[in-house]
Amino acid sequence: MSPTPNEALPDVSIVIPSYNSAPWLPTTFEALARAVRASGLAVQVVFVDDGSTDDTESVVERIAAAFPGTVELHRQTNQGRFLARWAGLKRSRATATMLLDSRVLVDVDSLVHYRRVLAEEPSQTVWNGHVPTVSDAPLVGRFWEVPTHIFWAHYLRRPRPMDITPENFDSVPKGTTIFLAPTDLLREAFRGTWPADDARLVSDDTKLLRWLVEAHPIRLDPGFSALYRPRTTVRGFVSHTFDRGTLFVDSYAGTTPARSIALIAFALAPIALVVVLVWLVVAGLGAVALGIALASILLALAPALLAAINRCPPRALLAYVAVLPLFVVPFWLGLVRGLFVHRRAFLRRGALHPSTSEEHTAP
Q1: How much is the pTM?
Q2: pLDDT value at position 120?
Q3: What are the coiled-coil residue ranges (predicted)?
């Protein structure tokens, strides 16, 4: 599973971090294999098992034998996706590296499209994947489509190739579910956004991408795509939502004063609402308390209406309404945890920038 000393350098290295994703890996690799064969690219896969307790290792070893490229398995104790990706990135041997999550299905033409565009436009070296959610996912898996169809509506109403720039960064889809860039640039970005706190509780994409977009435009292109397979259980959704609340703070705290204030307000608002409602009930104003409670519920459901206007799929709208009660408390608790864990981030001035961000020592 390891390369020989005289083996030719690959065209692309693919880093796949994974934690207890064994059931998903066979189909993840099957889709990736089809895309690799269609493109004709020579690839090196660096699979990082981030302390899994399932049979990930044996599954990867079986898959490697039939994969059209080298597959290198690296095992480590659980350290979070940021450090798992870094472990893979250190082992990348190609000049370009693709980050790929372990539960996505790469479109068969994605690497073909990347190779064709790169030949025509050599400056297009940094790519952000177009990643819709599989349509047959359970309701808990489609909840997040409503928020994305609000904040990223300009793109999702009509997906088309475009550049992500510092100016439009917060209004278009972005992430590292499937992301490709020059290896050296990625390594520099990782060093520039090295976590000062517990790496399992830091954003592994937004801060990294904010750093990268200051250095180079990022191409967002429907032709470079993969299907996202979300969590399928209530327990998985709740745990993921709790973590997202914390990572949300890490992604935006300190980037601007307004965002920092908004984060603190989001954390305090539910407490203030409960205090007001209790006071009204104790004061004998139960009807007023009920009216405020109903108004708060309607306000929480309003995003579904906005998302519908922006062509959000009907099943995703249903998912938002049905799953919202499971979302509110875990996300808020995660947000509060984030305010504590990332409290130093509120002292930052402005977003990370390649020329001004603090450089951290990476192993």
Answers
A1: 0.90
A2: 96
A3: none
